[in-house]
Structure formats: structure tokens, C-alpha cells
Design goal:
2 domains, 337 residues, alpha+beta, binds 3,4-dihydroxyphenylalanine, 7-stranded mixed beta sheet, 9 strands, 19% strand, BirA Bifunctional Protein, domain 2
Length: 337
């Protein structure tokens, strides 16, 4: 049987099909219901078990060769038919425009509001050394405050880590510029935390810093109130709660009044009606000095907020993981937003 197959293969290699008709009669004789291949496949059943493998492979090769020898007539295909219609009144193919990611939408809005107030947008590296992420910000070595932020350490010497907050950009800016300084620094930050519906190991923050002569806590409060009214609505109320950060003194946490009637999910304000938006405070004089700024001449305030929390609140997204899954059904919701 192998010999017969070989002969057919040779014959097919010599065939030159030029017309549709030739192609059709070739198809019938080789690939038709009563064709050569069908007959050979029936005969295959009688082949000795030890010859089955080689004969089967040869049969398949022959089938492929027969199929390849046929004329491929594209004039009959669907695509071609459509093209040939030349109906210029048909609606065009619609393309699928993308959408901005909700994190980008919220970040851009925050940035725009602060830029209107005279803040300049700055960026810093995502891989930071210990000095910029911790030491210059008044986190002494071995200080328990370092535990507030579980760090992804990269190397010991040099002491590199993924930045745990955008406050590192404060340090870089103060080292490079002289006051007055008025910057915001949006960016990605990393924490070695378990992933859940409320927290992720990668997220985004916007940092703010204002250093000048005579900057006071009242300036901080008014700036944050102006931002909150602009972002959340004219009627927004804020409150500042005492808190602790190593790099600010005094430190506060800013909440906005969210109201219990808007509490679709009890985790939103935990039944208090107040939604925590950011940390803030007056830059600690020790931080100013670490960065080469005279703390007797200058004062300043700083603040830092998480973009995901604000985006979750704005778009009523109950699970932070949705931002990182790139599910098109989720992302398509932000078209035209
Ligand atoms: N870096 C803080 C954090 O990641 C947020 C923060 C709090 C930034 C107070 C500040 C600030 O600039 O003054 O939790």
C-alpha cells in the first residue's frame, strides 16, 4: 500500500491545475466521496498493525498534497464578495476606541485642580534609596514607624527599595530647588501587603508640598478645602483629625463629609459618615533641615492621598483589584468619561 501512496504523491506533484473545472475534477477523483483517498482509507483497515504507523503518516501526507494542489479561488469568498460590491452608501466599519483608565481620569482631575492653584507637577523614581524614602523623612533606623509601610526591599548596598509613598519626591524636590516650592507629585507606589478588595501591593498617590516664608496650618486647611470643593462638589465639608506621620508636625488626617445616606457599602465610612481622603501636616523642621532648607526662615505643608480610594468612591467601585485586571468589560465603562 505504501508503494501506491508514493505513486500518487509523485503524480500529484506533476499535476498542473489551471482552471476551475480541472480543479473540480481533480477534487472529485482524489477527495470525493468515492475518490482515491476514500478507497485508500478503507484499505488502511487491513494494513498489518506493525505497518499502520508509517502507512497512516503517508496517507495523511497524500491527503494534504491533494488539498494543496487544488486551485484556491478567492473570488468566491465572503470578504471578496463584500469588496466587490463597491456600495459606497454602506456604513463604514466601526473601530473600537479605547477609554482612559479610571486611575488616569482621577489623577488628571486632581492634577488639574492643583495646577490651577499654582502647583507644578513633578515626578520621581519608583526605585528609591533609603534616604529619600525614609531617613530624610525623619524615619530613624529601627524606628517602629517604618513598620507602617511594609517595604519591598531590592538590595542592601546600595540600599534600594520600591518606594512606599510619593513623599520621597518631596525630599528630591527640596534638595534640588530653593523655596518658594509648590509641587504635586503623582505616581505609583508599592507595599508588601496582602491583596484584598481594599488594599493592593501596587497603587497610586498624589503628594503635595508647599514651602515658603510664613506658610501656616491655615494655608493647608484652605488649600485642602478648595481642592475638596472643586473635586467633590461645592457643598463638601472637610474635617481634620489629629494623626501622626514622622515627617509632619503637627499631622492630620483629612476626611470629607460623605453622609450616611450615600453609604452603599458599610465599609465606605464605617458608619461614621466621614470618608478618609488623605494625610497631611506641617513639614517637620527636621525634614527641612535634612533637605538643606533653613527651618528658621521657611515653613511648609505637605499632603498625600491615595488615588484608588478616591476613584473607588467616585465610580462606586467596590473592589480595588478591578483596576489591575484589565478586564475590557470593566474598562469600557469609562468611555467618554
Ligand atoms: N506618605 C503618607 C502615606 O503614604 C501620606 C502622607 C501623609 C503624605 C502626610 C504627606 C503627609 O505628605 O504630610 O501614608
Amino acid at each position: 500500500m505504501l508503494e501506491i501512496i508514493e505513486e500518487h504523491l509523485k503524480a500529484i506533484s506533476l499535476v498542473k491545475i489551471k482552471t476551475k473545472e480541472e480543479s473540480e475534477s481533480f477534487r472529485i477523483s482524489y477527495l470525493g466521496k468515492k475518490g482515491i483517498l476514500q478507497a485508500l482509507f478503507s484499505e488502511f483497515k487491513t494494513v498489518k498493525p506493525e505497518d499502520k504507523k508509517a502507512t497512516g503518516a503517508a496517507l495523511n501526507t497524500l491527503k494534504k498534497a491533494a488539498e494543496n494542489a487544488l486551485l484556491i479561488d478567492i473570488s468566491d469568498t465572503k470578504i471578496n464578495k463584500n469588496h466587490n460590491q463597491e456600495d459606497y452608501t454602506r456604513p463604514g466599519y466601526s473601530n473600537l476606541p479605547g477609554a482612559q483608565h479610571p486611575i488616569s481620569l482621577v489623577r488628571n482631575e486632581i492634577v488639574k485642580i492643583f495646577e490651577r492653584m499654582g502647583f507644578v507637577t513633578t515626578e520621581g523614581p519608583e526605585i528609591e534609596d533609603d534616604w529619600h524614602n525614609f531617613s530624610a523623612l525623619n524615619f530613624p533606623l529601627e524606628h517602629p514607624a517604618r513598620d507602617m509601610q511594609d517595604t519591598f526591599f531590592l538590595s542592601k548596598d546600595p540600599d534600594w527599595a520600591l518606594r512606599t509613598h510619593t513623599s520621597s519626591v518631596q525630599v528630591r524636590t527640596m534638595e534640588e530647588q530653593t523655596p518658594p516650592i509648590r509641587i504635586i507629585a503623582p505616581g505609583r507606589v508599592f507595599r508588601n501587603e496582602a491583596i484584598s478588595s481594599r488594599s493592593h501591593c501596587v497603587f497610586h498617590q498624589v503628594e503635595g508640598l508647599y514651602i515658603d516664608k510664613g506658610v501656616s496650618f491655615a494655608d493647608l486647611k484652605q488649600t485642602l478645602l478648595a481642592f475638596s470643593k472643586s473635586f467633590f462638589g461645592e457643598k463638601t465639608e472637610i474635617r481634620l483629625r489629629p494623626s501622626y506621620f514622622p515627617f509632619t508636625e503637627p499631622s492630620a488626617e483629612m476626611d470629607i463629609w460623605w453622609g450616611l445616606e450615600n453609604e452603599v457599602d458599610h465599609r465606605m465610612t464605617k458608619g461614621t459618615g466621614w470618608l478618609e481622603i488623605m494625610g497631611c501636616g506641617m513639614v517637620d523642621p527636621a525634614v527641612l533641615e535634612s533637605c538643606g532648607i533653613d527651618s528658621k526662615e521657611f515653613t511648609g505643608f505637605a499632603f498625600g492621598m491615595g488615588i484608588e480610594r478616591i476613584a473607588m468612591q467616585r465610580f462606586q467601585i467596590p473592589d480595588i483589584r478591578a483596576f489591575y485586571e484589565n478586564d475590557l468589560r470593566f474598562l469600557a465603562n469609562f468611555k467618554g468619561a
